[in-house]
Amino acid sequence: MALLANKVAAVTGGVTGIGRAIVLEYLRQGAKVAVNHLGDSASEQHFNTLAEQVKAAGTSGDNLIAVAGDISKPETATRLVRETVERFGRLDVFVSNAGVCKFADFLELDADLWQFTLNTNLGGAFYAVQAAARQMASQGDGGSIIGISSISALVGGGQQVHYTPTKAGVLSLMQSSACALGKYNIRCNALLPGTIKTQLNEEDLADPQKRAYTESRIPLGRTGEPADLAGPAVFLASDLSRYVNGAQLLVDGGLFVNLQ
Question: How many C-beta neighbours within 10 Å does residue 40 have?
Fold first, then answer.
């Protein structure tokens, strides 16, 4: 039985990496999905590739729409929710996944990169979660909001002084939202990926020595794939997790406990 049958989801940053894997699995599990992407030519092409994958998998293209726009702008979040509801009638699941991660030396880190990262990763998450929660509260029958944080929220990183605070902020946002929105039966939880092979780290992982070092610290002995996040995201979206609220779920192959 499809775990997300009759559910409507929206996913930010859903055309590449972790977001794409979640979108594909949500569709396989019976959901209708609205995908937000930046709207530039590269993102448009990524969405077209995603749509082709959906078609090749035999899933109806009518169950997938794109809403382009910069999620760091509050009007994009509002429009994403509005167009999702206009197309599919409601909103049951929201995944705040969009984010940026550019490595930078702390002493050379400039204000523009700091603000860009903060606006996208944390500002965008706040606008999106608030817009989704308003819609879910108005429907009166609850919902599930999932924030994609990071293991970096718990361990930090010397080349990510601008990034790790935003992911800690996403974790805190989900915990506080769980407290604020529980009275509406809206559950808010965070997924914390470890090292997952995406466009953000493909250059580092292409280096055999860096990859070997990274994998040596992970008890399961491998870096993660975007699809490794899809199952946990389905669980948190589904009724199987109906009493899970304010949780943080590490999806890291055991990396965090090995660092303790």
Answer: 11
Q: Are 229 and 21 in contact (CB under 8 A)?
A: yes
Residues β-bridged to residue 6: none
Cβ count near 58 (within 10 Å): 7
Which H/E stretch holds residue 28? helix 17-28
Cα distances from 128 to residues 29, 39, 73, 184, 231, in angstroms, run: 23, 17, 9, 17, 22
Q: How far apart are CA 83 and CA 86, in angstroms?
A: 5
Catalytic positions, written as ranges: 149, 163, 167
> What pTM value is reported for the model?
0.95
Say how far apart CA 228 and CA 251 lie, in whole Å: 8
Output the pLDDT for position 156.
Answer: 82
- pLDDT band with cut points at 50, 70 and 90 for residue 151: very high
